């Protein structure tokens, strides 16, 4: 293997790993129908839950993962993520 091949392989592996971490939570991901279930699932997925509250009929969680802050909105009826706002 050449130096360029090794470097390209390492770059691809790092990019794939970071993309996988960022994509572990998407709209439609099922987290639960109660605030406690949502918080527990997010913590299990490696998120630090800073705050969770009910707003406009949805569970809203403020989370941090890998230094990135996000707001996660979960439909209380379906338990699925309806919206993700990254900051």
From TrEMBL:
Q: Which domain of life is it from?
A: Bacteria
- Give the signal peptide range: 1-22
Q: Where is the PepSY domain?
A: 7-84
- Alphabetical list of Pfam families matching this protein: PepSY_2
Keyword terms, alphabetized: Signal
Does the keyword field hold Signal?
yes
Q: What is this protein called?
A: PepSY domain-containing protein
Query: Where is the organism placed in the taxonomic lineage, from the top?
Result: Bacteria, Pseudomonadati, Pseudomonadota, Alphaproteobacteria, Rhodospirillales
């Amino acid at each position: 293997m050449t130096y360029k091949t090794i470097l390209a392989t390492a770059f691809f592996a790092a990019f794939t790993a970071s993309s996988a971490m960022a994509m572990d939570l998407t709209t439609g991901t099922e987290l639960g129908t109660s605030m406690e279930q949502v918080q527990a699932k997010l913590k299990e997925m490696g998120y630090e839950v800073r705050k969770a509250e009910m707003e406009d009929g949805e569970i809203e969680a403020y989370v941090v993962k890998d230094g990135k802050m996000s707001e996660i909105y979960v439909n209380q009826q379906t338990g699925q993520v309806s919206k993700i706002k990254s900051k």
